[in-house]
Amino acid sequence: DQSGEYECSALNDVAAPDVRKVKITVNYPPYISKAKNTGVSVGQKGILSCEASAVPMAEFQWFKEDTRLATGLGSVRIENKGRISTLTFFNVSEKDYGNYTCVATNKLGNTNASITLYEISPSSAVAGPGAVIDGVNSASRALACLWLSGTLFAHFFIKF
């Protein structure tokens, strides 16, 4: 975060100030700032994403267990655009589920993150994240709160 343009000014009583600007670039090894597990149903499109900050820009590789993945290997595509690398599954099958490793590398070092592609049921995919499905396809939540303060005790239970 200390990269940027700096200005230096030198002055004396003899001449007008001399001002020069210089651009400073701070090189640093990659660090992965975003990597999120993803749930997808069999037969659907699934995308794993990995974002890494680095100067110079990181190069990415994807692995499943000890096997390095490449575009065209099976039904996957790897796309690297700037700081983000995505691993796209066009038609997820049972064998695709599991842990994947995103590796970001530049001349100063490397880092990696483990990302899981996991199975979700088709009904969960339709209801959306965080929904609780019961037998009649409705959602319900319960909230319990407990406050203790000296001798004052209050307990509330709310269901909606």
From TrEMBL:
One of its GO terms (cellular component) is plasma membrane. Keywords: Cell adhesion, Cell membrane, Disulfide bond, Glycoprotein, GPI-anchor, Immunoglobulin domain, Lipoprotein, Membrane, Repeat, Signal. Pfam families: ig. It is a lipid-anchor; GPI-anchor. It comes from Gulo gulo (Wolverine). Residues 29-116 form the Ig-like domain. One of its GO terms (biological process) is cell adhesion. Its main location: membrane. Gene3D superfamilies: Immunoglobulins (2.60.40.10). Belongs to the immunoglobulin superfamily. IgLON family. It is found in: Cell membrane. InterPro entries: Ig-like_dom, Ig-like_dom_sf, Ig-like_fold, Ig_sub, Ig_sub2, IgLON_domain, Immunoglobulin_dom. SUPFAM superfamilies: Immunoglobulin (SSF48726). This is Ig-like domain-containing protein.
